[in-house]
Amino acid sequence: MIHKPTSHKFTTLLGPISIAKFASLLLTGMVIIMTAAEAATEKVSPAIDSSTLLNKEPQLLPQPPEEFPGKAVPAPLRDPAVIQQSDKPVLHTVINVKLESLEEVEIKSVLAAHKVIFYSWSTSEEVYYDFHAEPAMGPEGYFVRYAEGESMKDSGSLVAPFTGHHGWYWLNISEKSVTIRLQVDGYHKELIEVFRNKR
After folding, report:
1. Higher-confidence position of 57 and 159
2. CA 125, 172, 196 angle in degrees (round to 5)?
3. How many CA atoms lie within 13 A of 3 on its CB side?
4. Model confidence at 30, in pLDDT bands (50, 70, 90)?
5. Is 71 a member of any domain?
6. Is 171 inside a domain boundary?
């Protein structure tokens, strides 16, 4: 099944809220109470191009004055999660995923919030891919999408916005069988196949 985004609203203890608003609450921990009238006029914000955020240099926090002459005090980190010390080694995982024509599969990395992975995948023919994630504690059917398209390869890095399953749906749209080579390095627990089907 190809996942598609939705702008439907659902009811919580806080009242009816949109999927986009719930995502904001989930990722930031902020609490926003909405009335039914406010929810009725709630508009889903358009998607933000991640390249725009990556190319924008974050503002530095001010550095405190010296405790005494010659004793500098470091400036605070805006996001302490940028440093991830671990007594466990980086996990290196490589798998080969074979797909017949019109066969689909979903491979997920099990990843805790704020943990990092570096990934790359490639194949000999174009496939449809949907790079997305489902939170471990989210409502049924809830997911976020990182990227989608048709390609023979992709690579990058991910800092998990929440604990859950983060990974790839692939559909072989060619008339030939293909083998997708996926490599993931980082602090994931494991890679798992959660879905496979022949259309």
Report:
1. 159
2. 140
3. 22
4. very low
5. no
6. yes
Whether the per-residue pLDDT at 74 is higher than 50: the answer is yes
What's the residue count for the chain?
Answer: 199
CATH number at residue 170: 2.60.120.510
* Residue 21 falls inside a structural domain: yes
What is the C-alpha separation between 105 and 192, in angstroms, rounded?
Answer: 11
- Which tops the pLDDT comparison, 113 or 28? 113
Closest residue by Cα to residue 118 from 78, 90, 156, 154: 156
pTM for the predicted model, two decimal places:
0.69
CA distance 54 to 100: 36
Q: Are 66 and 72 in contact (CB under 8 A)?
A: yes
Do 20 and 105 share a domain, yes or no? no
- pLDDT bin (cut points 50, 70, 90) of residue 129 is very high
Structure tokens at 37: 């009238």
SS3 content of the chain, % helix, strand, coil (to 5): 10, 45, 45
What range does the domain containing 27 cover? 1-45
